[in-house]
Amino acid sequence: MIQASISGTSPVGKDTIESMRDRVTALLFSSMSKRAVDQLERLVPPLRKWHRFAYEEHFFRAAKWERLFHGVYPTFEAAERAIPAGSQVGFDNDDAAHFLGHKGSIFPSDYPVLFWLEKLLPENRRVFDFGGYLGISFYTYKKVMTYPADLHWTVFDVPAVVTAGRQLALEQRESQLTFTGDLSEASRADILLAAGSIHFCREEFSDELQSLTARPKHILINKLPLVEAEPFVTLHNMGPAFCPYKIMNRTAVVQSILDCGYELINSWSNPDLSCYIPFHPERTVRAYTGMYFRRKA
Predict the structure, then answer these.
(1) Which among 38, 21, 23, 24 is positioned nearest to 276, based on CA atoms?
(2) 84 located within any domain
(3) By residue range, what is the domain housing residue 16?
(4) pLDDT tens, residue by residue, 18-39
(5) Which of 98, 118, 123, 214 has its CA 20 to 30 A from that of 58?
(6) How far is CA 140 from the centre of its chain?
(7) How many helices (H) and strands (E) does the chain have?
(8) Which residues pair with 192 in a beta bridge?
(9) Bridge-based pairing state of the strands 68-73 and 232-237
């Protein structure tokens, strides 16, 4: 380990060394450097073994948001079993329920949803936000949209998020925003929005739709990692917790929703979102997907 700087000047502090290490590690594991690293490892096989060891050590140690993925597993349960004992899992804990905050930036992937919401909201005032966290879509889209005065936006999520979301809505005095852990409330919705949530769920989305006594007229799905190949599950370190992360087959997902009585009206690419799993470059999801389905009459 480096103990002092050149020419006998003062010792390098522990914080400085750790900062340097973190910067080198972030560069090595970043999506920007992945192609160069993959090529170098093919030329120098021993480097791959060291890289895998270093990445796994970093992946299971990292405690802040770095958008890290690890491994390829056949099922949700298999990925879950790979999570170290004692680690927090999923969003149903206080740390995961707060770390993203309630407002975000508008990204290119958001504009198709904004486009369809602007068209649909004038005649469809009840939105069911599936896995909507603290209401992040509600708060973020409100910065660029004017919501109808009688809009009713319900976020469905796990208990810890629901509790945090309700408290935040009170603090923000948001009367249009409510929270629930009861999926059956989607039966009363006009629009079901699932923005970046379906792939975190153990259950299949189509099974959730089938369980409803009445189905929403419109479904907006966004930021979904889909592939044309076989589906699989990877493991996501989201900072405060680990979570199985499903990569789904596009054809199967679309067909499962069509079988629930819908027609696909529009689909789009989210090129600003991708999923790279180190040591499995063939599994890379280069762009996520968004889709708009309308219930058949």
Answers:
(1) 38
(2) no
(3) 6-61
(4) 555 555 555 555 555 566 666 6
(5) 98
(6) 16
(7) 10, 11
(8) 128, 219
(9) antiparallel
